[in-house]
Amino acid sequence: MITELGIAVINGVFIGCVYALVALGIVLIYRASGVFNFAQAEFGTTGLFAAYAGVVLWGWPYWLSFLFGLAVAMAMGLATERLVINPLRHASRVTLLVGTAGVALAAIGIQFWKSNEQPIRQMPKIVNGIAAEPFGTAVTYQHLVTLGVLIVVAAALAVFFRSPSGLALQAAQQEGTAAELVGISVRRVSMMTWGIAAVLGGLAGILSGPNLTFTAGYLTFGAGAALLPGFMAAVLGGMRSMPGAVAGAMAVGVIEQLGSLSIFGYYTGGGAMMLFFFLLIVLLVRPQGLFVRKAVAT
Amino acid sequence: MALLEVSDLVVGYDAYPVLHGIDFTVEQGELCVLLGLNGAGKTTTVSTIAGLVKTRSGQVRFDGKDLGRRSPSSRVASGISLVPEGRRVFPRLSVRQNLRLGAWTRRRHSKIVQRQFELVYDYFPQLAEREGQLAGTLSGGEQQMLAVGRALMSRPTLLLIDEASLGLSPTIARSVWEVTSRIKQDGTTVLMVEQNAGALPFADRALIMEKGTLVYTGVGDELRAVNLREAYLGA
C-alpha cells in the first residue's frame, strides 16, 4: 500500500508539472483578459508539432527545435490575441470563450490534416535515461527537466509580477481605462500576456511530448490531455493566484493518480471521479479557491 | 497662447451627438471648473481631451500642438493627466503600486518619480500612512485622493479631474477641492468637472455646459453670484 501511495504521489507530481504549466497560462490570461482560454493546451500541441518537425523531420539540433516550437506557440498566441481576442474585446466573456474554443478546434483540424500520413508520433527526449527508481517507479531525466523548468518558470513569473511590466499587466486587467490613462498601452500588455501564456503552453507540450506518443489534439483531449486538469488546477488556486495554480496542479496530479490505487479496484475513471469530488468539496467550502482572498470592493 | 484650446469640438457616440461644436480655452496656471447637470457633456469633453473618445470634427490643441488622434498614453507623456469619474483605482494593488503606475511614462526617471511620491504624500498624508494597503479597501474619500495622487505622479502640466466630489461627504469633497487649489498654486493647470457648485469658490473661471453646448463663461466675483446656480444648475 505504501509503495502504491509513493508511486501515485511521485507520478502525480510529475504529471502535475505539466498541468501546472498549462494552469499558469490559463491564470495569466484570465488575470489579464478575464478570458477562459480553451486554446491554452493547443498552444502546447502546436509547439510540440513544430519542435517535432524541427528535430525529427528536418534534423535540426534539439535546442533549436525546442526554441522553434516555443516560437511557433508564441506566434499562435499572438495571432489569437490579434485576430480573435482584440476584435471581440467588447463582446461577452462567453463569446470570447467560444472564440478560444474555435481557435483550439481550428488548430486540431490543421494538425489532423497535416498528420494524416503519420498520425502517431514520438518526440525524442531532451536527455535519455532513468535518474532514480523510488518505490520501483522510474523517474526519468525528462521528468526532472520538466520539474526544473517549472521551478524556473514559477520563480520568473513571481519576479515578473513585481516588476513594472507585471504591475502594468495587473493594472490593465483590473481597470483597463485607468491603465490607459496612466499611459499603459493595454493593447501591448494584452499581446505580451498572450505571448507569455502561449510560451507556457508550448513548454507543457514540448516537455510532456517525449513521455508518450502524440497525435492531433494531444494536450487538449489526447494522450497527454492537460486542458481540463489545467482548468481544475486554476480554479483550485482561485483563478488569480500563480502559486495557487501550481499547488492546485500538484493536487490534481496526485489525486488523479490516487484514484487508480488497487483499493478502488483499478476502476477506469477512478481518478476523474476522485478529482470531481475533491473539486466539488473545495468549491463548496471555499468558493473563491484555496489561494485567493475574497474579492476586494471598489 | 492658452495651454489648452478647444475649437468647434463635435463628439458623439454612434448616432448620438453629445458635443455640438464647443469652444473654450484654459490658460496656463488657471483652475477652471466645467459645470453642468447630468448629460451636459462634461465627462465627454475631458475624456476627449484625454484621448479616450474620438472627435468627429474640431480641434484640441495642447501647448500649441494639435492632439489629433494621439493615443491616451501619448497624451499622458506630453503632460495631460485625467482623474476619471468613479476614481478607477487599481483595487487589488497597493496604494504605493497604484502611485508607481501613475508614473508609468516617467518610470525611467527615478529621481522624478521619487520627487512626485514626496509631493503626493505631502498633499495627501493619509496615503503615506496607508501605502501598503490594497486600494480597493480604502474609503471613498481616500480612493479619490489616490486617484488624484496617481494622476499627479506623471508630473502633468494639465490635470483634468472628473467629478471629484461625486459620492463624497461635503467635508471630504471640500478637502479634495482645497488640495486641488494647492496643486494649482504649485503651478499645475487644472480643469475640474463638477456638478457641485460648491467647487466654484476654488475656481478662477467657470464654464457652464448644457446639452452639449457651452452656455456661460465667467470669472472672479461673477462666480459667487447666487443667480448663477439658479440660472444654470437648478440649485
Word description of this protein:
The complex is a heterodimer of chains A (298) and B (235). In chain A, 67% of the residues lie in helices and 3% in strands. With 298 residues, chain A is mostly helical. Chain A has one domain: ABC transporter involved in vitamin B12 uptake, BtuC. A two-stranded antiparallel ribbon of chain A has the order 1-4. Chain A has a two-stranded antiparallel sheet with strand order 2-3. In chain A, strand 2 (130-132) and strand 3 form a beta hairpin. In chain A, helix 1 (2-33) runs antiparallel to helix 8 (186-208), helix 1 (2-33) runs antiparallel to helix 10 and helix 2 runs antiparallel to helix 3 (62-85). The radius of gyration of chain A is 19 Å and the shape is globular. The termini of chain A are far apart. The mean pLDDT of chain A is 89. Chain B is of the alpha/beta class. Chain B has two domains: 1-79 and 160-235, P-loop containing nucleotide triphosphate hydrolases (Rossmann fold, 3-Layer(aba) Sandwich), CATH 3.40.50; 88-155, no CATH class. In chain B, 34% of the residues lie in helices and 27% in strands. Chain B has helices at residues 42-50, 72-78, 95-102, 110-123, 125-129, 140-152, 170-185, 226-233, and strands spanning 4-13, 16-26, 31-36, 57-62, 65-66, 80-83, 158-162, 189-194, 205-210, 213-219. A six-stranded mixed beta sheet of chain B has the order 6-7-8-3-9-10, sandwiched between helices. In chain B, helix 3 runs parallel beside helix 6. The longest helix of chain B is centred in the last third of the chain and has 16 residues, at 170-185. The termini of chain B are far apart. The relative contact order of chain B is 0.19. The mean pLDDT of chain B is 90. The chains are: A mainly alpha (298), B alpha/beta (235). Chain A binds chain B through residues 164, 167-168, 170-171, 174-175, 177-185, 296-298, and chain B through 50, 52, 71-73, 76-77, 81-82, 84, 87-93, 97, 100-105, 107, 134, 136-137, 143, 150-151, 153-154.
